[in-house]
TrEMBL record:
This molybdenum-iron protein is part of the nitrogenase complex that catalyzes the key enzymatic reactions in nitrogen fixation. It catalyses: N2 + 8 reduced [2Fe-2S]-[ferredoxin] + 16 ATP + 16 H2O = H2 + 8 oxidized [2Fe-2S]-[ferredoxin] + 2 NH4(+) + 16 ADP + 16 phosphate + 6 H(+). Keywords: ATP-binding, Iron, Iron-sulfur, Metal-binding, Molybdenum, Nitrogen fixation, Nucleotide-binding, Oxidoreductase. Its EC number is 1.18.6.1. This is Nitrogenase molybdenum-iron protein alpha chain. Its cofactor is [8Fe-7S] cluster; [7Fe-Mo-9S-C-homocitryl] cluster. Residues 49-447 form the Nitrogenase/oxidoreductase component domain. InterPro entries: Nase/OxRdtase_comp1, Nase_asu, Nase_comp1_asu, Nase_comp1_CS, Nase_V-Fe_asu. NCBIfam families: alt_nitrog_alph, N2-ase-Ialpha, VNFD.
Amino acid sequence: MPLKLFCCDECIPERQNHVYIKEEGEDTTQYLPLSNIETIPGSLSERGCSYCGAKLVIGGVIKDCIQMIHGPVGCAYDTWHTKRYPSDNDNFQLKYVWSSDTKEKHIVFGAEKQLKKAIKEAFKEFPKIKRMFVYTTCTTALIGDDPKAVCREVEEELGDVDIFVVECPGFAGVSQSKGHHELNIGWMRDKIGTLEPEIKSEYTINVIGDYNIQGDTYVLQRYFDKMGIQVIAHFTGNVTYDQLRCMHRAKLNVVNCARSAGYIANELKRVYDIPRMDVDTWGFDYIKVALRKIGAFFGLEDKAEEVIADEVAKYEGKLNWYKERLKGKKVCIWTGGPRLWHWTKALEDDLGMEVVAMSSKFGHQEDFEKVIARGRVGTIYIDDGNELEFFEVLDNIHADIIFTGPRVGDLVKKLHIPYINGHAYHNGPYMGFEGAVNMARDMYNGIYSPMWSLAGKDPRVVQEL
């Protein structure tokens, strides 16, 4: 089947190149939706900006940093408290947000003095914190501020602080994906190799593309501890600034979210010759494969099998209980990029569900190649989907549950369809064996909630009943 034009897109026919429905015998050599290009005018995109990709997804997760946003206070607020990535230092990074609070007069006369003042004030208010990220935004990039020069001045004046500057304003790319790229490359260029770690094991890894969403990092860390593997750094879940400076000493880079963090794994391979191993850490069967691959790399196959046996004994029965009740249910996955191909086979193989539509906000061509290869015949694949397209999909396929973010999630709730927060979860962690059970539990609770039988009724009539 050729690429599809939705009825709602008749006035923007270019959208046909971004939607594909897989048919028997077709593959990505014949049809592949366009992706990672500018949003077509007239289409109400759900994408985030490039600055958001750097700050919200990667940098803001680091647990011992001041995160200074050089721009209007709204840019700081919009990337604060919208994702749940806890830490073991009382969630410092979730509690606070910092901004240079630029206003119109700074746009006219320059905002560098305002930035310097804000940086020094932040360090003074948090005297135990000696590390900082500074992000440019659209306004401060357009007026030509030089935040790196400002930060060098502050470092010289204070003497005991270290600051990393991310120059990726919102307009730098077509989506948040540009922010992922810029932060990866910048950190590799400026910070990796500037500190040496304490090596405690002959088996050392970096876990790349894991952001400790609702405790994912804690689950993975527990597996690696049992196998005797030292994690030099999680990029960037529950990690410190200085741990990330030591990533050059790992013997293996284990990559989960390849779209947000594959760049730094490639650079570590190029500069330090550290091998890259891509794994899936969501899904009951996928995590078995991941642990076996890592175990085989270090000759720790027995340790991997011990971990798998322990976890299967604890969680397989619970997963099977949910599988009986979720089998055949229809799912849509409308998230960022890689979760489409991480989750589709996990939901279908582990739970017997049918993934009927997938939409990516910032996936690249290789992401669509992977997801279409793993996806079912008849599934709808959408790049940079808009609200009207989502409504049309739901009219045609009658999904039982949607994985998406809060913006689209609130829309589908109005249609009386349950949704799971696919970006920050509802009751995670979702990674690993226990995560697969948590994910199944949340879907079961959403689909079978008695609330849906009441949602369409007049509350006055319900009260009388």
